[in-house]
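User: C-alpha cells for this one?
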Amino acid sequence: MAIQPRSLSGKVVAITGGGRGIGRSIAEALTREGARVAIGDLDRESAERTAAALGSNAIALGLDVTDHAGFTAFLDEVERSLGPLDVLVNNAGIMPVTPLSEESSDSVARQLDINLHAVIHGTQEAMRRMVPRGTGHIVNVASIAGRSGFPHLATYCATKHGVVGLSEAVRQELRGTGVEMSVVMPSLVRTELATGLADSRVKVIGPEVVASEVVSALKVPRFDVFVPRSNALLVQFTSPLPRRWREALGRWLKADQALLKADRSARTDYEARAAASAPAAEGERTAA
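Assistant:
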C-alpha cells in the first residue's frame, strides 16, 4: 500500500539562513505547499525581501544563529506569530575555501559556530518544543562533504560530518516520539557558496532541486536526503571499496580540482560576507 504524502498546508516552518540561496528556495517551495514560513537571516533586509516576494504566508525576522539566546527568542517569536513549530530547517552555513594550513583561527571558529554549534542548538530547541506535542520534523542541511573529504574544505567538511553525526544520533533519540529527523546532503549547488569553483564532472544543481527534495522528505519522511538522489547510489556503491579506489574515483570526477583550482579572486565578495556572518561568535555571546 502506497504511503499517503502528508499535507504541508498550514504547517509552521522556521528556516535559518532563509534570505537567499538554498534557504530562500526552500521557503519558496514550502509557501507554494501552503505552509506558513518564518525566514530568519542575519541579513534582515534579504529576509524581508524574500518574505515580501512570498506573500502573506511568510514573515521575516532577524537571526544570528551564533547568539543562542537570540536563536531561542527567534523561535519563541515564530510561535507567537504563527503558532506551534512544526518544522525547523537548520540551513544557515558558510563555506570558506582555503588550505587548512592557511586558515585563520577566526575562520575555523566561525564555521564551527555557524555550521555546527548553531545546528546543535537549533536541534535541541526543536526537540524541546516538538517532543512534548508528539509531532514535528527537524531538517538539518549538511552536505555530501559530510560523507567524504575535500581539499581546501577541511574545516567545512569537519562541520558537515558533525551535522551528519548529530542527526544520526538524534534520529535514535527521537524514535517513538512522533518527531521526524532528516539530514540533507547536496553536492555542488548553484549558489553564492559555489562562486569561483573550477569545473568538474560533478553535476551542479540548482537550489530549487534541493528545495524539492526537502519538500519530498517532509511529505513522506525519510532520513537520508541525497541531492541529487543518484548520490545515494554512488555512496552505497563506493563505501565497500578500498580507500585508494574511492579516492581514484574522486580524482576522475575532478571533485578535488573544483576546490584546488578555485578562483579565489572570484570568491572575494562571498568570503568577505562570510567573514562578517558571526558577530556573536566573535564577540561576547549571550549564554544559551
